[in-house]
Design a protein that fits this description.
Layout (H helix, E strand, L loop, with lengths): L3 H26 L29 H5 L14 H19 L2 H24 L4 H19 L3 H30 L7 H40 L10 H23 L2
Helix pairs in contact: 1-3, 1-4, 3-4, 4-5, 4-8, 5-6, 5-7, 6-7, 7-8
Length: about 260
């Protein structure tokens, strides 16, 4: 007989694959202002409908060799990567956290995965992801992550104000000094959403991690490609990376730093 825990992990992984398949649709269509419901799945190259047996998460890409059955055009590796990431994350959350927390953190992470790839491709962070995340994160902080709803309310509210306010000040200060926009308004909204879920401590941790990783990647990119320092590098993926790092390592790091 399969142990209950193992069964939950397998089901979680498979369900995560399915959600990942839907996220691929969101990542492709949302920045193009297309419906994420209609029409059904189709090849972006030849527009041929994708039948259900060619739309099985992860498996179909492997069976078809990463190509469309109709036009034989290449299907990006990103599709199975996003599906696999969602499956692994959900399984890990179910293994590590209580059920309610696992589901809440997974929803948060799935939104961040979508933001990561959309911002990477289009340098935008859709309001359709970050704005609904504000009340959802606040409710999760109040009734799932905190022992008392009042503590969660204060933590989430401070996280929203600190997250959104910090990047607004940074963006405003940069514009006053350089007379150029160095950051879009999507980043403050995203960090506000992160603050709703993770609280003010999570915002600080996210900013530290994202700034450090972003600086290293930015300098390496400039050195390797010879790009000018004014070359635009989206900050959303680094914020997403910092926020997921907080979920897994942040509270432990804070306790270690404070010595308890």
């Amino acid at each position: 007989m399969i142990p209950v825990d193992a069964f939950i992990l397998v089901v979680g992984f498979l369900f995560g694959l399915t959600v990942g398949s839907f996220l691929n649709v969101v990542i492709w269509r949302l920045p193009r202002e297309e419906s994420i419901v209609f029409p059904g799945s189709h090849c972006p190259r030849c527009n041929a409908p994708i039948h259900w047996y060619d739309n099985l998460p992860l498996l179909s890409w492997i069976i078809l060799g990463g190509r469309c059955r109709a036009c034989h055009g290449e299907i990006s590796l990103r599709y199975p990567l996003v599906e696999a990431m969602n499956g692994v994350f959900l399984a890990l959350y179910l293994h590590h956290f209580p059920m309610a927390q696992a589901i809440a953190w997974y929803i948060f992470t799935a939104a961040l995965i979508a933001v990561f790839f959309i911002d990477l491709d289009h340098k935008i962070i859709p309001n359709a992801i970050s704005l609904p995340g504000l009340p959802l994160g606040l409710l999760a902080n109040m009734y799932i992550f905190s022992s008392r709803w009042s503590e969660g309310l204060v933590s989430g509210a401070l996280g929203i104000l600190l997250g959104g306010g910090t990047l607004l000040l940074v963006a405003g200060g940069y514009y006053l000094i350089t007379k150029r926009e160095g950051m879009g308004m999507g980043d403050p909204k995203l960090l506000a959403m992160i603050g709703a879920f993770c609280g003010w401590q999570g915002v600080i941790f996210t900013m530290l991690i994202s700034s450090m990783v972003g600086t290293v990647v930015g300098v390496a990119w400039i050195v390797l490609t010879g790009k000018d320092r004014r070359f635009e590098i989206p900050f959303g993926p680094f914020l997403a990376l910092g926020a997921v790092s907080w979920v897994w390592f942040g509270p432990v790091a804070v306790r270690w730093y404070l010595g308890y």
